[in-house]
Amino acid sequence: MNHLLTIAGAVAAHARLTPSKLGVRDSRRSLTFAQWHERSHRLAAGLRGLGLVKGDRVALLAYNCIEWMEIYVALADAGLVAVPLNFRLMSPEIGYIAKHCEARAFIVQDELVDRVEPLRAELDAAEGGYIAFGEGVPENWARYETLIADAPSNLLPVEVFPGDMSALMYTSGTTGRPKGAIRSHEGSTLIAMATALEMGFTREDTALMVMPMCHANSLYFSHTFAHLGATCVIDDRKSFDPEALLATLASERVTFTSLVPTHYIMMLGLPETVKSKYDVSAVEKLMISSAPARRETKLAIMEYFRNGKLHELYGSTEAGWVTLLRPEQQFERLGSVGREWAGSGPIRLLDAEGREVPDGDVGELFSRTPYVFDGYWKNPEKTAEAFRGEWCSVGDMARRDAHGFIHLVDRKSNMIISGGENVYPSEVEAVIGAHPGVKDVAVLGIPHDKWGEAVHAVVVLHEGADATESELIEWCRSRMAGYKRPQSIHFMDDADMPRTATGKILHRVLRDQMSLKSASA
Q1: CA geometry: angle at 225 spanning 222 and 227, to 5°?
Q2: In the chain, ranges of CATH 3.40.50.980 domains
Q3: pTM
Q4: What's the DSSP call for residue 441?
Q5: Please, are residues 347 and 321 in contact by the beta-carbon 8 Å criterion?
Q6: Domain range 1-185, CATH architecture
Q7: Which tens digits make up the pLDDT trace of 1-41?
Q8: Superfamily for 416-520?
Q9: Which class for 178: exposed (0-12), middle (13-18), buried (19 or more C-beta within 10 A)?
Q10: Which of the chain's ends, N or C, has fewer CB atoms near its CB within 10 Å?
Q11: Taking a C-beta distance cutoff of 8 angstroms, is the pair 316, 372 a contact?
Q12: For the segment 332-348, what is each residue's pLDDT rounded down to a tens digit?
């Protein structure tokens, strides 16, 4: 039985109330709410027919496409747990996550099957648990459309409750190993309600999902519009095309989209003759997230989207939405990420001893949200570290001004945000450090006009080694996702590497050195 506090229950309700209304579409096909419910319900039955039972984890690997929306609803219907995988991950990274969560099935787009195929011998999937969709499905994989068409019709419904796990969202940490954040159906629904309440969305909206559907951003926003009975349009291009985005905004009469600063910069950098071809007057609300936006970028957004109101959010997979900078605050509080979302508790900024820091001082940011995650999968130590009572932290450092607005300062994990993607230096350092010529390495982000930050490595070679920049970048190519690979490498003598008294590399000092070097180049 689909509880109304699940996305499956919401889509089923809209299938009854507005069956012929457009629910979701991409460039290949569209689904009314009735069709969406029917296909997802049959997919749920097909997955259960493979022997999957409530609570089993199902790994998902695909580019943006309409299938994501069918699958999310189907898994909720069957009581199965979605494990969205970033399509940029390589086989070793996918293999770690699949083993860690004990995935019992994979649903994979045909173009990405080669990332999973080498792992089959070492994974304990269900019989028939390798499912692919697209035109080029290999013979040894089950076909997604066949699973839907041949779904059994005599299965008793699964009881799914609000507190049941709906997704495991893997996010990297300072250890370099991804951690699975446990999200419940209730948590996802509460985020949807808070989003609709705070931003004034209704069933009349049309939202364009550009951010990867495996990310929390698109997961939370797409669920919001599904719960409302609004329409979602999935941008299914494999790479960002700024003019194509404008064309979609115009042709679909989109009222909302969420983008990172890089997207806006690329789009607004198009020639005026191109931008003037598209009528984007339907756009009423815009979200900017994942990295700070400059004043000139915000001004350009508001100049082009004359009917749109700009919002800026800060959040995390674990805590959900944490702060919101509202339209009327964009320039009054420039540089701030705003204040807490509707329904959230006050934000606490704590020092190392857990004491509140005064306004203006930097502390670790702890938030209390009604939709916080339920802990890290099989990792009680990291779960305990993330909480102080009901308050949750992902290690971000911030200060509060005299008016209560939050300003992010740094990240304890030295996380890099490049083009909206989170890059954790420890992961990259582990790969580069495995090269036989490398003695030590530090990875950091350096300013980049287009991507916000670029991944940069500082390498100390073993005495007598002669590895080159191109050699080390090539070393990384097959071992990690493209957005994590360093775009540049600087070689340094061991004696010049800034370190603490115990030998740890001082990333902040090194970052300052590299910024000065870049500025003087």
Answers
A1: 105
A2: 1-185
A3: 0.83
A4: E
A5: no
A6: 3-Layer(aba) Sandwich (3.40)
A7: 557 689 999 999 999 999 999 999 999 999 999 999 999 99
A8: ANL, C-terminal domain (3.30.300.30)
A9: buried
A10: C
A11: no
A12: 888 899 999 988 889 99
